[in-house]
Amino acid sequence: MTKAKDYRINQLANGQIISIEIKCCGNHIGEIRFLDGETRTCTICGTEHSLKVHHNHFHLSRIKHPN
Ligand SMILES: [Zn+2]
Fold first, then answer.
1. How far does the centroid of ligand 1 lie from the alpha carbon of residue 56, in Å?
2. What is the DSSP pairing of strand 17-24 with strand 58-63?
3. Residue 19 belongs to what domain range?
4. What is the 55 CA–ligand 1 centroid distance (Å)?
5. How far is the CA of 36 from the centre of ligand 1 (A)?
6. What pTM did the predictor assign?
7. Is residue 2 part of a domain?
8. How far is the CA of 35 from the centre of ligand 1 (A)?
9. Is residue 43 included in any domain, yes or no?
């Protein structure tokens, strides 16, 4: 069983990442620039998707806000 990815990375031909498209609750909720601290909140479940960029990798974390 494969798990559906909830984001998609947009990058240039040379591999440089320019932006990330975020999906949540089966919907495309927005695109964020590849910058540390960028966030996008799902309007359906209220989960905040937060991007943390490090030297050679990045983390895309989900923070669930209680309703
Ligand atoms: Zn959601």
1. 28
2. unpaired
3. 7-63
4. 28
5. 21
6. 0.81
7. no
8. 21
9. yes
